[in-house]
Write a structure and sequence with these properties.
The protein is built from 25 helices and 18 strands. The protein is α+β, with helices and mostly antiparallel strands and 573 residues long. The strands form five sheets. It has a seven-stranded mixed sheet. Strands 1, 3, 4, 5 and 9 form a five-stranded mixed sheet that branches. A two-stranded antiparallel sheet has the order 2-6. Strand 15 (222-228) and strand 16 (231-238) form a beta hairpin. Helix 5 (190-202) packs antiparallel against helix 6 (247-260), helix 9 (286-297) runs antiparallel to helix 10 (301-309) and helix 23 (527-533) runs parallel beside helix 25.
Length: 573
């Protein structure tokens, strides 16, 4: 038997392409606590450039993904870069600057830790400064001035709004992906506004090109304008940095936001409630309740407390029937607790005032949200509050929002699926205490065993292996099948998790509805050797009549090369 298997392997090896491709960096979990890009940005200490103009950079997408190791003191002690060849070749010129970056220390359980963070550097062409100077209007103390910034939505969750500033007021008009949708006003600092206008003049704004547009799609458009005594000037920025747009345009955009404090309306940050009170906002309205949910969703715990204190109703208000509303559809379908479920402090603020005490669905969906975020404390607080850890969530509707769109769908079959998906073994242990249905399924027929192997950037090394082990010890089936007949081994692409599944009895030759075994479908190239070592049958043909060689050919040269090396290794041993 061994001889015939070896001959078949040599034949397969000879059929494979010998092309060589560059291997991208593996997205494998780290042994250090990891923090994603949004968290990393909030810890940045200026000066910190995330966009760098360099001679030799061509217009277009030239981005480096950085994996940075930060000491407990906030110093950069290691940095690696990945990206396309055109971007990576500039990394030697940038390493010294990156190593000078400083961060507010990252903490775990209240203690500073050595952390691994994700950052990005955008490399752009040198600035295309104005060739012809245009004299700006004379800026007098009594000049009539108006400044505005419009930011559009994008394919994603970019905030869409317009902010307009004159000597009388600040007007914010929020559209999508903002906490405070609709029109809102705030007083203006006249002296500060005069200084802002002077910045436009000093930056030679009137000499800039009317637009800087890159040839890409699905990005936000920024329109910055100023009018001084009837002399208007507008600049349209559509990923303008890729086309040499002077950096001062981006600086002015950010200065307008900073002066107007738009973040209070966009994110619901400090000062929002005070501003709303000054404009005589109706805190008893559906708009106010929607605003409360949006602030809760962003983890703005203090703003949530202030809104509740201002009288925002905790019981659901009916959505308007007759006229069209610009309120996010999410507001009518998502409960208060569910909105806050991923942030313990914000969730506790709502639990303290009895939010949704009689709304079992909101409590159960919030528990699923807490489980999915891996917050054991939040999950415990919700169970104590009355959430059911054995609720059948497939009977409930889950609402997800992004990019101005709201998508509703069937919930996963159990809280355990969300807990497993978090990648936190303690979260899995917590839900297993309630003896849940281990084989409950989501709308794709996947069980918690599938979810345990889903990768996230924040994963800690070995955590998902432990989640899989805990589920198996509780009796979960490592060979469960989804609607397409796939077992977890067909889809999970973390090599250490695949190895654990095999140790636990996963069938390396399980066939899905297309006749494919895991070695056909698993996108982890490192799994090929692992599956062969555990007895993957290379002679199996799928429903198309293909062997794994033919299937690899359809997956591209990277897959072919990985299979070739795995078979070569087998022959050598």
């Amino acid at each position: 038997m061994l001889g015939s298997h070896l001959i078949r392997t040599v034949v397969i090896l000879a059929c494979l392409s010998t092309s060589v491709v560059l291997k991208a960096s593996d997205n494998k979990p780290s042994s250090k606590p990891s923090f994603d890009y949004d968290v990393a940005r909030s810890h940045e200490i200026k000066p910190h450039r995330d966009m760098i103009p360099l001679s030799g950079v061509h217009p277009g997408f030239n981005q480096l993904r950085l994996v940075i190791t930060v000491s407990p003191a906030g110093d950069v002690i290691g940095a690696e870069a990945s990206g396309n060849e055109d971007a990576v070749k500039f990394w030697p010129l940038l390493q010294d600057e990156v190593r000078q970056w400083k961060f507010i220390p990252f903490e775990q359980n209240g203690n500073p830790v050595t952390a691994e963070i994700e950052e990005y550097l955008d490399l752009v062409p040198p600035e295309r400064l104005p060739k012809t100077h245009v004299d700006p209007p004379v800026l007098r103390p009594d000049s009539k001035i108006s400044v505005s910034l419009r930011r559009s939505g994008c394919f994603g969750t970019c905030p869409s709004y317009i902010v307009t500033i004159n000597r009388d007021r600040i007007l914010f008009e929020g559209d999508f992906s903002v906490v405070a949708a609709g029109k809102h006003i705030a007083p203006v600092d006249a002296i500060g506004f005069q200084k802002l206008a002077k910045r436009f003049v000093a930056a030679d704004f009137y000499s800039m090109a009317p637009e800087y547009r890159a040839s890409v799609t699905d990005n936000p458009t920024y329109i910055l304008s100023i009018d001084i005594d009837g002399y208007p000037k507008q600049v349209e920025d559509y990923v303008g940095s890729w086309e040499g747009m002077p950096a001062v345009i981006t600086e002015l955009e950010n200065e307008v936001d900073a002066f107007a404090k738009t973040n209070r309306w966009i994110e619901g940050s400090d000062g929002l409630v005070k501003t709303l009170q000054a404009e005589r906002f109706n805190f008893q309205s559906l708009e106010a309740q929607t605003l409360l949910k949006q602030a809760a969703n962003r983890g703005q715990s203090e703003t949530v407390r202030e809104l509740v204190a201002a009288g925002v109703p905790l019981d659901p208000l009916p959505a308007p029937q007759a006229k069209k509303s610009n309120l996010p559809a999410r507001s009518a379908t998502v409960g208060l607790l569910t909105s806050a479920s991923h942030d313990l402090k914000t969730l506790q603020a709502l639990l303290d005032v009895g939010a949704s005490r009689n709304d079992q669905n909101d409590k159960d969906l919030a528990l699923a949200g807490a489980a999915g975020s891996g917050s054991v404390e939040a999950a415990r607080a919700l169970v104590t509050y009355g959430a059911n850890p054995n609720a059948d969530l497939s009977k409930l509707t889950v609402t997800e929002s992004g990019g101005g769109m709201t998508i509703e769908g069937q919930g996963a079959g159990s809280v355990l699926i969300y807990a497993a998906g978090s990648g936190n073994p303690d979260m899995v242990k917590e839900i297993l205490r309630y003896h849940p249905n281990l084989e409950a399924r989501d709308h794709d027929g996947k069980t918690a065993m599938f979810a345990a192997g889903d990768y996230r950037n924040s994963d800690i090394d070995g955590a998902r292996v432990e989640c899989v082990r805990l589920l198996a010890q509780a009796g979960a089936n490592v060979n469960a099948r989804d609607k397409d007949g796939n077992a977890p081994l067909h889809e999970i692409f973390l090599t250490d998790v695949e190895e654990e599944l095999l140790k636990l009895g996963a069938d390396v030759n399980a066939r899905n509805k297309d006749g494919d075994t895991p070695i056909f479908t698993n996108v982890d190239n490192d799994s090929i050797s692992l599956f062969i070592e555990h007895g993957a049958d290379l002679a199996i043909r799928n429903n198309k009549g293909q062997t794994v060689v033919g299937s690899a050919g359809e997956s591209g040269p990277s897959r072919e090369e990985a299979l070739r090396k795995a078979l070569q290794k087998m022959v050598q041993h």
